[in-house]
Design a protein that fits this description.
CATH topology of the largest domain: Aspartate Aminotransferase, domain 2
Order of helices and strands: HHEHEHEEHEEEEEHHHHEHHHEH
Strand content: 5-15%
CATH superfamily of the largest domain: Type I PLP-dependent aspartate aminotransferase-like (Major domain)
Number of helices: 13
Strand order of the largest sheet: 1-9-8-5-4-2-3
Number of strands: 11
Radius of gyration: 21 Å
Bound molecules: pyridoxal-5'-phosphate
Shape: globular
CATH class of the largest domain: Alpha Beta
Length: 376
């Protein structure tokens, strides 16, 4: 069986974990946490980073930082992972779901302005599959109405918008290092702070609402409870694992992007023949090889293709179920129609894409898809 995903270990993880253990301090904000912060800030160029235990955590921090209060409205796509919404629901926000674009699953930025009300506090964008949302439009709306922008960049490491690194554009950004992402630490994530107004408070929220970080830098003579917060920081063992991955970022990315391109080139013919649609890449976006999908013509055809691939030893999977149709949201008696979002929920199919997927296996997957459509 060719799995859908296989977490890639670079081989250096245990070495760094052993080192972290031998250093005798494995709680949060230790040696490897600082090494990772240094890599992200100095080698990659994010402004100010805090590792978290998950992207979900980073999103929860973002919701606290932009000061979501009960009744505040937050605009976001319905085609996303539950955490994008949950983080804000936990603070009492009312989620206003926007539709996807016609030709890609990202939020339709043209629909955002009509959803803004006096209660709107933030816009959350999701760069689906690492493909950038049209951020100029989003940032313009945000500045016109004085809103915060949070990038859910869970899938968007090493990807760009008009040459600008994703995660550096909104006021805040959240990354994931869950084992299904490009760079992993099992569970893991990171908050990127692009607006200096959040710097001080972010560090406090991260450390359970205390000024512990300032204390360890010698800036205050004792640390105490100064704000709300939680235990958002990961163990240094997790950071040690992540550091091994970061050192191999280029190697991992070059392999994943290559696999993405092979899928695209090999399946182009089926798109030209009208059997399916390939990912649409706007002129302003880049490919980071996070995931590869095809869009089938109907849910029935998509499900038949999943079954056909499975019978032939290949696990391919669909993705999000529209959040506006979830039982949790429907219970709130909101009835909205988001046509494009539903199309992606019904017809999108993700193909196996992981570092160790070899060319023969990828060939097999491509040929099976061609056979499936040949038979029709
Ligand atoms: C993976 C993912 C998350 C959640 O990440 P965790 O690190 O598992 O919390 C959130 N949003 C999107 C878009 C994701 O793909």
């Amino acid at each position: 069986m060719i799995p859908f995903n296989k977490p890639y270990m670079t081989g250096d993880e245990l070495y760094y974990i052993k080192d972290a253990v031998l250093r005798g301090k494995i709680s949060g904000n230790g040696y490897y946490t600082r090494k990772c912060h240094g890599f992200f800030e100095n080698t990659i160029g994010y402004r100010n980073c805090l590792l978290t235990s998950s992207c979900t955590d980073a999103l929860e921090m973002a919701a606290i930082l932009v000061d979501i209060e009960p009744g505040d409205e937050v605009i976001m796509p319905s085609y996303t992972f539950v955490s994008t919404a949950n983080a804000f629901v936990l603070r009492g926000a009312k989620i206003i779901f926007a539709d996807s674009c016609n030709n890609n699953p990202n939020i339709d930025v043209e629909s955002i302005e009509s959803l803004v009300t006096v209660k709107t506090k933030a816009i959350v964008v999701v760069h689906y599959g690492g493909v950038a949302c049209d951020m100029d439009v989003v940032m313009n709306i945000a500045s016109k109405y004085n809103l915060f922008v949070v990038e859910d960049a869970a899938q968007a490491i090493d990807s760009y918008y008009k040459g600008k690194l994703l995660g550096t554009i909104g006021h805040l950004a959240a990354f994931s290092f869950h084992e299904t992402k490009n760079i992993i630490s099992g569970e893991g994530g990171m908050l990127v702070i692009n607006d200096e107004r959040f710097d001080k408070r972010a560090e406090i929220i991260w450390e359970k609402g205390t000024n512990r970080s300032a204390f360890f830098r010698g800036e205050v003579d004792k640390y105490s409870w100064v704000d709300v917060g939680s235990s958002f920081l990961p163990s240094d063992v997790t950071a040690a694992f992540l550091y091994a991955q970061l050192e191999n970022l280029e190697k991992i990315q070059s392999r994943r992007k290559k696999l993405w391109t092979v899928y695209y080139d090999e399946l182009k013919q089926l798109e030209n023949q009208g059997y399916l649609q390939l990912p649409d890449l706007p002129y302003y976006a880049s490919v980071n090889g996070h995931l590869f999908y095809v869009i089938c013509k109907s849910i029935e055809e998509r499900n038949m293709l999943i079954l056909f691939l499975k019978e032939n030893g290949v696990y391919a999977v669909f993705h999000y179920v529209s959040l506006h149709k979830s039982s949790f949201y429907m219970n709130k008696n909101v009835n909205i129609e988001l046509k494009n979002c539903d199309t992606f929920a019904d017809q999108l199919l993700r193909l196996p894409l992981y570092y160790e997927l070899d060319i023969e296996d990828q060939d097999k997957i491509v040929n099976l898809i061609k056979t499936f459509f040949d038979k029709k």
